[in-house]
Write a structure and sequence with these properties.
Oligomer: single chain
Helix content: 40-55%
Family: Belongs to the protein kinase superfamily.
Number of helices: 14
Radius of gyration: 33 Å
Number of domains: 3
Catalytic activity: L-threonyl-[protein] + ATP = O-phospho-L-threonyl-[protein] + ADP + H(+); L-seryl-[protein] + ATP = O-phospho-L-seryl-[protein] + ADP + H(+)
Order of helices and strands: HHHEEEHEEHHHEEEEEEHEHHHHHHE
GO molecular function, one term: ATP binding
CATH class of the largest domain: Mainly Alpha
Strand order of the largest sheet: 1-2-3-5-4
Enzyme class: transferase
EC number: 2.7.11.1
CATH architecture of the largest domain: Orthogonal Bundle
CATH superfamily of the largest domain: Transferase(Phosphotransferase) domain 1
Length: about 425
Amino acid sequence: MINDSELESEGAVSCIFGLSLLNDTLVGLRKKSYTALVTAVVSATGGLLTILFLYFLWKKSLGKKRAYSENIRNVSAGDGKNDTELPVSSLRSILAATNNFSEANKLGEGGFGHVYKGILNENQEVAIKRLSKKSGQGYQEFMNELKLIAKLQHNNLVRLLGCCIEEEEMILIYEYMPNRSLDKFLFDLRENIKLDWGKRFRIIEGTAQGVLYIHKHSRLKIIHRDLKASNVLLDEEMNPKISDFGMAKIFEINQTEANTNRVVGTYGYMSPEYARYGHFSEKLDVFSFGVLLLEIVSGRRNSAFYHLEHPVTLAGWAWKLWKEGRGMEVIDESVRETCLPHEALRCIHVALLCVQEDPVDRPTMSSVIHMLANEATSLPLFKEPAFSTHSDYKAICSSSPSSSIFSNNLVTISIPEGR
């Protein structure tokens, strides 16, 4: 038999066990409630942050659209239409000319936007440059080209034929160059053979004449600041025409030099004083022309030397061969046997004068043209060129102003800057 004391003891144990279970249940419920609360708070916070981030992106996009629209209004209301002496085309005619900016009509693209081939007035072939709404540099380049090229008239400069400023579109219309740009021929083994020595020398002379014109003989005194093979276009007869004045700077009549805290340009074509200090003058374009001249003579792309297997630059390579009496080896093999040796060697000599370290040691463009055209003229001696090794260029560019922007040889990056 079970006595009363045993029953009381079992009842106490059951009660304690029941209370323990109740306590565990309550603790479990509290933990679940706490976890649910934390989950809800985290989810709500994450959702709020997502909404705020999307709102920020929307406001930023809206700000860009407003700024772009404001730029359009400024150009339309300002001297963009009235002071450029240019015909203004309708957006409808541009869309018809380019088949609504179709991919089939696209010629190329850059920091400014896309370039399309078009047909205006039923039979006029044109190149149509359309400002990208996402372009950080496009508006400044658009205004620069609109104000500059319209006032320049020379056989060796590409002609700006008109513009279109309508709705949210900013468009420049150029003469069409059927042979595209010089680099497409110079550095393509299949096209390279089409550039015999006679054509190359005419391109050299024509480009030099174009640079001299903007330095000395145009209505405006201009420093191009981005002279390179991709910015030299070729017409149907392979005559050169300098293009892309988006980064050009206007000098006053008596001004000889200027400084900027924002260096823009193409790696390998910039002079040392410009790359290092932002100091530029006509001699910046002379330096760029010297690099271009070496590319035309050698058929070698300047940027091809900026790799580990090439410790020297194009200028350093040419100088080394010249110093060793092997100047003929600089000349492109495809024209080495058919060129005029004295003419080709003179071009190399002039090019090495153009890429001297000190701007004072570089010739003016008028002197360049004289030296190229007159075989009887004795040429000055030159020193080792600037940036004769890749490490030289890398070191000098690393000491450039903090806001400096460099690009490869295909696309130039620019930043708006004040004069």
